[in-house]
Amino acid sequence: MTNQINSVVVVGGGHNGLVCATYLAKAGKKVTVLEAAKQVGGACVTREFAPDFRVSAGAHLSYLLDADIRKELGLDSHGLSMAAEKIGSVALSPNGQHLYFEGENVSGEGLNERDLQGMKEYRRFMAKFAGIIGKLHNRIPPRVGTKDRGDLIDLGKLALEIRLMGTDDMREFLRIAAINIYDVLQENFDNELLKGALALDAVLGTKSAPRSNNSVFTALHRMSGNNGHGAGVLSIPRGGMGAIADALAAAAKKAGADIRTNSPVKRILMDFDKVSGVELENGEQILADIVVSNADPKTTFLDLLGARNIEAGLAHRIKHLRSKGNTAKLHLALSDLPHFKGLDASKLGQRLLIAPSQEYVDHAFNHCKYGEFSAEPVFEITIPSIHDSSLAPPGQHVLSAVVQYAPRDLKEGWNSGKAAFTEVVLNTLEQYAPNIRSKAVVAELLTPEDIEQQFRIHGGHWHHAEMAMDQFFMLRPVPYAAQYHTPVNGLYLCGAGSHPGGGVMGSAGRNAARAIIGK
Amino acid sequence: MTESDMQAPNMQAPDMQARDHFKHHVYPSPFYSRQKEANKLKEWSRWADYLSVPAYYDASLEYFAGRNSCAVFDLTPMIKHRVSGPDALPYLNRLVTRDVTKLKPGRVGYAVWCNEGGQVIDDGTIFHLPEGGTYRVCSQERQLDWFLTCADGFEVEVVDETHEVAGLALQGPTSCAVLKEMGLTGIEDLTPFGLRNFDFQGTTLEVSRTGYTGDLGYELWIAPSHAEALWDALFEAGKLRGIWAMGSEALEMLRVEAGFILAGVDFLPAQEAVRPSHTRSPFELGLEWLVDFNKPVFNGRSALLKEKQQGSRYRLVKLDIEGNKVAHDSYVYTKDKKYAGTITSSMWSPSAKASIALASLDMPHGKPGEELLVEIYYKRELKWSRVMAPCRVVENVFWDPPRKRQTPAADF
Description:
Structural class of chain B: alpha+beta
Strand order of the largest sheet of chain A: 8-7-6-16-17-18-15-19
Number of strands of chain A: 20
Helix content of chain A: 25-40%
Largest sheet of chain B: 6 strands, mixed
Strand order of the largest sheet of chain B: 10-11-12-9-3-13
CATH superfamily of the largest domain in chain A: FAD/NAD(P)-binding domain
Oligomer: heterodimer
Number of helices of chain B: 8
Number of domains of chain A: 3
CATH class of the largest domain in chain A: Alpha Beta
CATH architecture of the largest domain in chain A: 3-Layer(bba) Sandwich
Order of helices and strands of chain B: HEEHEEHEEEHEEHEEEHEHHEEEEEE
Structural class of chain A: alpha/beta
Low-confidence stretches of chain A: none
Mean pLDDT of chain A: 95
Number of domains of chain B: 3
Shape of chain A: globular
CATH architecture of the largest domain in chain B: 2-Layer Sandwich
Shape of chain B: globular
Largest sheet of chain A: 8 strands, mixed
Number of helices of chain A: 16
């Protein structure tokens, strides 16, 4: 069917849009990528937020980027390199007795034998289970209830892979895959700080707490990337996450794709019952055989197409897709390296976590259920300038932190709430890094509302739609639109709202290209 | 339900704002006082929120009034929605399968609406009210939830106005004459599926030339406050024209003869189905003429387009069955006794003088003229017997008199 497709417009030049465009261009299609912002990358971008201070404005760590895509598209030859690889993590304790995660080991005061043994076993089974999920990433999800051979084979493969884990692991996988991380961590560990840090990884970027169902699944998803290093292993690209987007853009251009920035799409055009192209906000129309949307599902269907131009069932499901962000981003321009209580300066380049216990994370979450921000938020902090001096003026640094919970629909509104939350965030940070305020020249906080506006993501959710089992694989974003093609003729999805979801992975873009090219 | 069961029916019309409907099992119709008087059998049934009359005196006689003079049926319990606002037309056009842009003000159109699987949720009539731009949708099943679900992206207001509009059907050959007698000047010029407003005792009386009997007939719509006055005026005007009050049993006979389908009887509303194979598409109900693929988008379009290319599973047909036994809920077989389908509605048709039925057959059965067998179990003097009655698929409805279409309407 796709042999007749010659021209393709990709709406949005995020990493997935660029991946998709490159594969399509390599297959001989005439591809135009339209990016609203002045630079490509979407939420995988490096931005200047204060004079001469640059930071990864959205995602700030690379741990999911698909190694095959990196290789197939020759990203390294297009300038991608890592400033730091396999970086460790530090679970910060308010009293300075931190825990240090290096590879599969954890060390620090207060750990008992059960914690140390538990860590090994926990890493083992989590990595194994994450591998099952990871195997799904580069597959086009099967449709349920069809007699299509390929779909049935894919479902059979999944069942077989689970079966081949061995009886004990299969039973354990089926037992915990949909439950909450709290119970699993209680089963394996005693140390509260250790459990808090592990729980944080399960809930980052989601609207869930350690006690929420599915938080094991989100923990597994985070570890599921085929990144070439191992489950959940963290890297920081040289030049920030934008370097990935820049390399992708270079690969796309080399493959023959046309990339246009500063070109916000106003609407998707229809010719009777088929997509015919797009209209830009400046009125220019670009016609194409198919349109691939890297935008989130709500923006795509409700804003760019309009609910009235799709069938009501689809509009209803898209409307009720859970896609409200709960995560904020803090950027600090620092005049000097900060000091964290009890932390050796040599560890500042690692990932610093503020989640001193599972209860702490749970309390932080409670607020967002009622439209409030956390009184004591959780943090995932990086100081990338330690690894990459290009990000800040000599001797100075940038700090980038994921902070939650910060609900998209804050009861008091983000107009007044933003300054108040910034205070809360800095106060919390000060408990661990007492001199941080004096070193912060500029503080930028991106609330979900800012993320929504600046990155054009409906709801300001990093993953376009909540990562959860009911919005994963053959259910992502919604049934009948989960195989990258949509019920709208000629319209495809390639963003994080599609399988396999959020995180800078690229798989959604490649899968979408495969769905279009037809192999 | 008998009269004594309802010593003190709540005489208030339902107050939807009060949200106390759960306290009331059932409401009396705005015509209740007149129905009570006419209801010689003192039997009542329930239809949606209201008391309804199965038969006032004798269902057969009421049926014959509908065919030979005229009969009055209380339509108030029918679910009615008002659709208004600047996007009312595009909203309806996306909702239903037919092209609503062709429905001019003062016209009524039969329509079905589907889910995205192309399965029929319900059928009903769309009234484009004479002032233009506002529509009333009448249906058997409650639809507010689905209608509001479909309203996303449209500037449209959808309200359930079931309780704000009283309705009477006046059906049969003398119906036009009765309305003329009642003072509705020019009513004879109203064409089939036309809708016109008349003045009635200081209020607006909406009259549509529509019905569920396949004959000349009208439906009258008025504010509940004027319901009793309308009933009285009709019966006064119809005194010499053989006017009868008619219950639901007689109406059921009239509609089967006319070949009209009924939700929950001839097809399962898609939203009530647990098993996907138990629903029906418009094609499978013989309603292909209601599906307009010249519209770029409507609910069910993709699935129906696919069905049109790949073929349907079922076909709803009319059967003419030999003998006089009624084929209630029967199986239909091929001549070599293979399962072919089931009967959905059946009756002895006094007008056709035949045992007739509507049946849902598995494809490829049901081509006009196909000969099949119907397995009928029947009881004579407490003894059950079974007959395999030969039957034939027929194309035309069993009751379709020219006067149904004739304009000006004849004065019988």
